Amino acid sequence: MYIKKQRLLTPGPTPLLPQALHAMMGSDMHHRTEDFRKVYKSVLNGLKETMQTQNDVIVLVGSGSAAMEAAIQNCFSVGEEVLVCTAGKFGERWTALTKGFGLKPTVIEQPYGGAVTPAQVAAAFEANPNFRAVFIQASETSTGAAHDIEGIAKVIRNYDALFVIDAITGLGTMPLKIDEWGLDIVIGGSQKAFMIPPGLAFLSISDRAWKRMETSNIARFYFDLRRERKNAVNGESAWTPAVSLLLAMDAALKYIRDLGMDNLIKNAQLLARATRAAATALGLELLSGNNPGGSVTAICAPPGMDSSLIVKDFRNRFGSIIANGQGSMKGQIFRIAHLGYFDFGDLFAMVAELEIILAANGYPVQFGTGVAAVQNVYAEAALAKELAKEPVAV
Ligand SMILES: *Cc1c(COP(=O)(O)O)cnc(C)c1O
Asked: For residues 147 and 138, what is the distance between their CA atoms, to the nearest angstrom?
């Protein structure tokens, strides 16, 4: 009846950067040529620069989980004891992966919406100082919670354990000082804050982690990080790479460098703050209110309303694709994303749509309440600064 533009507004895949999408049209390129080597080197350097690390960064073809798997395959041996910190669906993936490869994980588990604390990690090491690694999510996308990576890193550095971080939605939404904090493996994925389609995973690797690879005994072939490192020196990947995605990544990295990684993070955090303000103004509860991150905000559906209905209404009424809860949270929460190519325009629309959807499903809403909350955050953060500036002489 009305025009509905389909808008991808989930926390992965995220909205695509137009110039990255256009760059993919140059994909008729062979990967053993100078043209490609230039692109590959540029992507590897760009990733190091945006991740702000001196560590090598390796790119793999696969979704984010590919790099999670590669980290385990390359750095560990069967039977090793490790510590897994989990507070949601993606933390559970670390548990399954470490078990799947024959490691012996001890699991610190927090309920969905919570976060594992440095004190809990310290207590675990006091009980067993022999853990070979700690696995965690920087940002737990299933709940919107963020972990105190700096605090936990401090605890771990007292021991001979690798710190392996799934930062797939942490990169670009929170500060992660890889070199300063001593983060051994930091994992990212293309379809999150990097604004391009799914299919590339990447990870920064510390000297400590490279050293572990010399003695680890888990079988590996396709995701052999040392083989990739050798080839990367010459601007090549071990296997046929995803050329189209690398072209997109090169364009996206240029955009992120021009914007500034710090500004990308600030953008996500400001949108997250505005979203929390809108939810609160509308009388809705936040799932991770005590430890909210900048990647995504998980909002509880009003009592008695199924969040699947809200998600479906977003799509049917407005063409907006937003995320439901995952696992046990399905039907309980809906998630508003902020990571990557999201702006205030997106958020104004989502909150205005939400108000209409809530009202249509019997939840009392004074139209404009949530939108005004977003406007106030914008005004405080941006407008106030601009108005305070000296008037421009004409
Ligand atoms: C998206 C995501 C992943 C990776 O999922 P894939 O489907 O393999 O890309 C892992 N961890 C977190 C926290 C994520 O948000």
From this structure: 5
**Domain 18-259, classified CATH 3.40.640.10, yes or no:** yes
Angle at which helices 369-378 and 261-281 cross, to 10°? 150
In this structure, the residue with its CA closest to atom 2 of ligand 1 is: 168
In this prediction the pTM is: 0.97
The binding-site residues of ligand 1, defined as CB within 6 angstroms of any ligand atom, are 12, 63-65, 90, 137, 141, 166, 168-169, 189, 198
- Distance, CA 327 to ligand 1 centroid (Å)? 14
Going from N- to C-terminal start, the domains of the chain cover: 7-13+260-388, 18-259
- Topology alike, domains 7-13+260-388 and 18-259: no
Q: What is the pLDDT of residues 79-123, one digit of tens each?
A: 999 999 999 999 999 999 999 999 999 999 999 999 999 999 999
Whole-angstrom Cα distance, residue 26 to residue 17? 16
Domain 7-13+260-388 = CATH 3.90.1150.10? yes
Atom of ligand 1 nearest to the CA of 65: 8
